[in-house]
Design goal:
It is a single chain. By secondary structure, this protein is α/β, with parallel strands linked by helices. It has 10 helices and 12 strands. The longest helix is centred in the N-terminal third of the chain and has 13 residues, at about 60-75. It has a domain at about 10-175 and about 265-340: Aldolase class I (TIM Barrel, Alpha-Beta Barrel), CATH 3.20.20. Strand 5 (about 170-175), helix 6 (about 185-195) and strand 6 (about 200-205) form a beta-alpha-beta unit. The chain binds iron/sulfur cluster (SF4).
């Protein structure tokens, strides 16, 4: 890979198209803008937290914006800002404004919403369109056990703030864990019907900081749909992303979706790539290798050189994860360092 500073005037055109050897086209980029978080969710990081990356290892807003611009030129249509917790990064709305200016066709964020009351207006003004809020329990004590943070009220207030400023759609991501919160499926369905928020149940994945994941703790898509349908009949909808989607048969507001990475993997139609807070590109959530885009950025590489590195990473993308198979190897990074 070239290191010396390159002359932008001789810059060849960046031609769109991030296609891998299985013919999948990457159009969805998830960028982690920080590895830090004010929560300590049990399925994400150890109770003591993780050793945060020093600030100078984290990409600046200018570096993130330059990379996203190249990804968009390569055909990325949707960018999701994640973390850690993106709202703990100062002036995050400035980054949203910089990305909106590129422009990014579809700009979304995933947050734990504990700071959303303060930030919702500024984020919407900066161009944020849609939001996903992580919420794994509607019961205060249990919320605190899972997040290791007494924050349910702030999260619910954050959801209201998102609704007030017109972010749409508003989705609620709930990681379902057997024996932890799987008795709240109906509560979440009722929460969706009452608020109109779209619930996205996520099958528990082996990305937890405590490495406590067991397949037996996974509550499958079939179980989730069966449990809810028994009370509120569901109608399956078209699949537009990683989630299998269901509307309420009685046309109540809201909807239910299930991201079944473990029991119904959707790798064959995967269109996602990731960028970590320290500028490493991952072709897959479970990738064991990454591409160091930060070094290219900071060593004066040109946009076309960076574009080639991105294209090469996608071209080399594997078929998918092998969770549950003996050849499956857990990534060394926990969820908070990848950004989900
Ligand atoms: S596991 Fe990897 S390949 Fe499969 S859907 Fe997720 S990111 Fe895509």
């Amino acid at each position: 890979m070239q290191a010396e500073t390159e002359d932008p005037s001789t810059e060849p055109e960046v031609t769109p198209g991030l296609v891998d050897k299985y013919g999948r086209v990457a159009t969805d980029l998830r960028i982690s803008v920080t590895d830090r978080c004010n929560f300590r969710c049990t399925y994400c990081m150890p109770a003591e937290g993780i050793a945060w990356k020093p600030h100078d290892e984290i990409l600046s807003f200018e570096e993130i914006t330059r990379l996203v611009k190249i990804f968009v030129e390569l055909g990325v249509k949707k960018v999701r800002v994640t973390g850690g917790e993106p709202l703990v990064r100062r002036d995050i709305e400035s980054l949203v404004a910089m990305l909106t200016e590129i422009p990014v066709p579809e700009l979304a964020m995933t947050t734990n919403a504990s700071k959303l009351r303060q930030k919702a207006g500024a984020l919407a003004d900066a161009g944020l369109q849609r939001i996903n809020v992580s919420l794994d329990s509607l019961r205060r004590e249990r919320f605190e056990v899972i997040a290791r943070f007494d924050g349910l009220d702030r999260v619910l207030d954050g959801l209201d703030a998102a609704s007030e400023v017109g972010l749409d759609p508003i989705k609620v991501n709930c990681v379902v864990m057997r024996g932890v919160n799987d008795d709240e499926l109906i509560d979440f369905a009722e929460f969706s019907r009452k608020t109109g928020f779209h619930i996205r149940f996520i099958e528990f994945m082996p990305l937890d900081g405590d490495s406590a994941w067991k397949k037996s703790n996974v509550v499958s898509l079939d179980e989730i749909v069966e449990t809810i349908s028994a009370r509120y009949p569901l109608v399956e909808g078209d699949r537009r992303g990683p989630a299998a989607e269901y509307a309420f048969a009685d046309q109540a507001p809201g909807s239910v979706g299930v991201i079944a990475s473990v029991t119904r993997p959707f790798c064959e139609s995967c269109n996602r790539v990731r960028l970590t807070a320290e500028g490493q590109m991952l072709a897959c959530l479970f990738a064991l290798e990454d591409t160091d885009l930060r070094s290219l950025l900071r060593s004066g590489a040109s946009d076309s050189t960076i574009a080639e590195a991105i294209r090469g990473t996608v071209a080399a993308k594997w078929a998918g994860h092998a969770i549950g198979n003996k050849e499956f190897t857990r990534p060394t990074r926990s969820m908070s360092m990848i950004g989900g």
